[in-house]
């Protein structure tokens, strides 16, 4: 007997672990499509079959498989979203052709207004920074790697998550590219929009362009004295010297016990606490290390936290670099004299 759309949705949700299903329900409860929404109270204690039933009954006219794919992309379950799209492609609605844009390509400011999901809009971007790969275990207990890449155009900056590490050789810092076949992912909890780059994503070299000083400034680390005074949930980059590293503790997050570790870092302006979550607790750092931490968010309790996309790198302490530079300058002067 041929499987229905509901059967495919059930099979897909069954591949999520307990935490993944909770994230899916949380995101679904905040999703409104054409005025339709599933109340969070109905989702809270719903099992997989019940969630699938609610999707079918609520979004019959707006296509439940498409809604499910959009929510999966939003919670970074890209593999499952692509699998479900392949299984239900015949049932997905034919997309209305997008009217020709007034510009040749979209800007990041325009792209940030687009809904989550696969995008057909080509965009020209400059590769600003390629972070070291992050190793993680997915829902199917497979070990994989991703790389976080910072892109910019003349209007804004955005983070990209490269899932297909074979493509990393096609990218290099300061290179301008035309990007096609990517996915827009929206983390509503942290108000972060990212680009997910998969095997289907295409890169091609394009004409070089400059990034404004205003955009470049957004990439610079925020002084720690401002880290606790900015608006909550806006991701930033910070850097400073570690003054203490706490022990790994376990806290309850959405019903699951997850590891956290508190560290304190300081710069010339202030000292703050930073909470490392989950796999970030395994990063080998110690007091005295000078680190750069990206994609740090401030929660409603004014506590700085890492996210899934955060990276932490040990760097050379600027004070040591200055001292070495002075020694070099002194030695050069002595030789010249």
Automatic annotation (TrEMBL):
It comes from Acipenser oxyrinchus oxyrinchus. Pfam families: PYRIN. It comes from the Eukaryota. InterPro entries: DAPIN, DEATH-like_dom_sf, NA-bd_OB-fold. Coiled coil: none annotated. SMART domains: PYRIN. Residues 1-90 form the Pyrin domain. This is Pyrin domain-containing protein.
């Amino acid at each position: 007997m041929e499987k229905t759309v509901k059967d495919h949705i059930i099979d897909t949700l069954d591949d999520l672990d307990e935490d993944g299903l909770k994230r899916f329900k949380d995101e679904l409860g905040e999703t409104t499509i054409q005025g339709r929404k599933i109340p969070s109270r109905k989702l809270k204690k719903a099992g997989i079959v019940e969630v699938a039933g609610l999707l079918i009954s609520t979004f019959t006219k707006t296509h439940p498989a498409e809604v499910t794919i959009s929510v999966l992309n939003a919670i970074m379950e890209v593999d499952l979203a692509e699998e479900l799209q392949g299984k239900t492609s015949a049932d997905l609605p034919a997309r209305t052709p997008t009217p020709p844009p007034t510009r040749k390509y979209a800007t990041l400011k325009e792209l940030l207004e687009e809904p989550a999901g696969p995008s057909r809009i080509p965009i020209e971007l400059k590769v600003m920074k390629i972070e070291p790969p992050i190793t993680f275990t997915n829902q199917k207990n497979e070990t994989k790697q991703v790389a976080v890449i910072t892109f910019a155009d003349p209007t804004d900056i955005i983070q990209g998550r490269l899932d297909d590490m074979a493509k990393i050789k096609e990218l290099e810092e300061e290179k301008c590219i035309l990007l096609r076949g990517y996915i827009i992912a929206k983390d509503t909890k942290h108000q972060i929009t990212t680009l997910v780059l998969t095997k289907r994503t295409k890169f091609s070299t394009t004409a070089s362009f400059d990034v404004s000083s205003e955009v470049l400034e957004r990439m610079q680390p925020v002084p720690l004295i401002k880290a606790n005074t900015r608006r909550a949930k806006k991701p930033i980059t910070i850097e400073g010297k570690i003054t203490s590293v706490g022990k790994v503790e376990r806290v309850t997050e959405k019903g699951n016990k997850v590891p956290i570790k508190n560290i304190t870092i300081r710069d010339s302006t202030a000292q703050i606490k930073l909470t490392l979550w989950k796999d970030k607790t395994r990063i080998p750092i110690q007091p005295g290390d000078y680190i750069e931490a990206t994609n740090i968010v401030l929660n409603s309790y004014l506590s700085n936290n890492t996210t899934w996309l955060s990276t932490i790198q040990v760097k050379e302490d600027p004070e040591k670099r200055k001292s070495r530079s002075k020694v070099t300058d002194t030695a050069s002067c002595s030789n010249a004299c």
